[in-house]
Amino acid sequence: MSIVFKDVSKTYLHKGKEINALRLTNLTINAGEIFGLIGFSGAGKSTLLRLINLLEAPSSGTIHVGDDEVTALNQKDLRVKRQKIGMIFQQFNLIESKTVADNIAFVLRAAKYPKAEIDGRIDELLELVGLSEKKTVFPKNLSGGQKQRVGIARALANNPDVLLSDEATSALDPETTKTILNLLKRINKELGITIVVITHEMEVIKELAERVGVMSNGEIIEMDDVYKIFSEPSHEVTKGFVQDIYDFQIPPHIVQAEDNKIITIKFLQESAEESYLNKLYREFDLSISILNGRIEYINGIPLGILMLQVTGDPSEIDRLIRNITETPGIERAEIYE
Amino acid sequence: MNSLTNLGPLLYQAFLETTLMVSISIFFAVLIGLPLGVLLFVTQHHLLFKVKPLNQVLGALVNVIRSFPFIILIVAIMPFATWLVNASHGPVFASVALSIAAVPLFARLVESSFNSIHSGVIEASIAGGAPLYMIVTDVLIPEAKKGLIQAITLTIITIIAFSATAGVVGGGGIGDLAIRYGYYRYDTLTMAVTVILLIIIVQLVQLIGDFLSRREEGK
Description:
Chain B: Keywords: Cell membrane, Membrane, Transmembrane, Transmembrane helix, Transport. The complex is a heterodimer of chains A (337) and B (219). Chain A is an alpha/beta fold.
């Protein structure tokens, strides 16, 4: 189910001062995609997410989820609509006084799910998130990852069309994060649920999202395919978020000179796997040594970064630099040095 | 009165009166105070049932009643209490004033127990499309159960303390015995025995309350 923001903004008063939590925003999240929003805390991503299920009301504009304009629904219809918009949270937000099964039963009962089928539905959901043996356990006896699985089972209980993820892996260790992200990916694929993820970790975006919006100061400042954002970040904030994969230090003992240059190149898409380096060795009369390099796979597409030290005749070095610029799929990438 | 044998029956009678007053009052404190506490909480919560004017009126009402010194409250509501229980003295009569004093106290304690619930749980329930009544019965009350048990404990102990004043309207009870015999008649033995009895009762109530609330925590 698609999500469409039309001229949406959110301002609120804080100690007499007007705060622009979300500046005028137009946004379409496509049905079935995994859309990521990244930004530092206070960037407005959490506000944007909460506008989708109207946990916060917009100051202006309209929001559609599927065919429904959620901003126009009355209280009762909104409640029913929310049952079709699952949400998971950083702190899991389970009812501590209820068992795993009762936590899920709660939202099923809220949606007037047929009483006789509730138990079977709970088994089905726990099976999906791989937590069948924890049915009668209280949340305090679960690990963080297990709690989030319960959170996911609860969010999916009423067969939602949309799943909102509010920093769902930020409280988890890297290993658990990976398994939760894989679970979300599987849910998206198998159930066709549109997923909106907010996070401050680029790793989560890289692993999970197909498209990403970068938020800063209540605005989406850049929005594109995740690969595009990683390979060609244009805004400073975006560069900051993706810099980890470009983050090569020049070894301190290396001194650059006319006849001794450090060149970082970026291989896009298929070229990342081609033997471009071989060609350089063959066609240029230069001494080329590799200082650093890595290939990242983003949505399965490779993005390679290679830091080279080239020594030789300055005019030959210039020829090499020209060749880099002229070869499609290969670019200079000295943005972080 | 200078022997425990003489004191025995009086003490027993007073104990029954106190028990009666406390039972009636805590019953009404919970019966009316719990919904009132729920109302106080949900009417100020932006995700639940925010109605600021209602919240302010209820809040003011609660504060006004809680501001009354208990002895003045007893006297002030005498006509009402007489009409309600068709009597003008005795423990049941005193229970009217005790209940009126206990309801707002308990309501505030309920409200503050709810305030200590992690707000994310409420948010998650709203996001799950749960109706208000289900949030009250399935989230607020169970999640605050420990705090609610402590609130009941505290309210009972406060009622016991207030009930000493109930003597003014012939309410009787242990506290009244302590004042009438122990204090006014300089009867040290009665004074000591009644005070010790009160201490034991309060300790016992607190102990039971702590036990029950700890049991909740263990879950």
